[in-house]
Amino acid sequence: QVQLVESGGGLVQAGDSLRVSCAASGHPITLYTMSWFRQVQGKEREFVAAIGRTGGTTYYADSVKGRFTISRHNFENMVYLQMNGLKPEDTAVYYCAARYGSSEYWGQGTQVTVSS
User: How many alpha carbons fall within 13 Å on the CB side of residue 57?
Assistant: First the structure.
């Protein structure tokens, strides 16, 4: 089983940058596809970005493409989401997820608030 803990959220202004982190424990993340999702209260959780096991393949939601970058450091069991050019509509709780086959694990989330 994998435990995930997100950190790095906070309050920033529009146009600022922020990096959120996901620390994994309990099992190496080497075999897992790692993803970031976000959720606004009262709305569905939405996909933000994903990265393949070796880091060679990445996927992004159209709304963040060109502004956000997902990365992973398997040796450190860490996943990151670098967010540049933040907009008020990026305000949400950001969740880290690990997936392998039918196994899926989620963190508790970190709040990112972007003021205009």
Answer: 5
Residues with Cβ within 8 Å of residue 15, at least 6 apart in sequence: 85, 86
Q: Where is 55: in which H helix or E strand? A: none
- Digit-by-digit pLDDT tens for the chain (116 residues) are 899 999 999 999 999 999 999 999 999 999 999 999 999 999 999 999 999 999 899 999 999 999 999 999 999 999 999 999 999 999 999 999 999 999 999 999 999 999 99
Cα-based angle 49, 80, 94 (whole degrees, multiple of 5)? 60
* Strand pairing category for 10-13 and 110-115: parallel
Q: What single DSSP character describes residue 56? A: -
Q: What does the block give as tokens for 13?
A: 């202004």
Cα–Cα dist 4/86, whole Å: 24
CA distances 38 to 1, 26, 27, 31, Å, are 22, 24, 24, 23
Structure tokens at 35: 């993803």
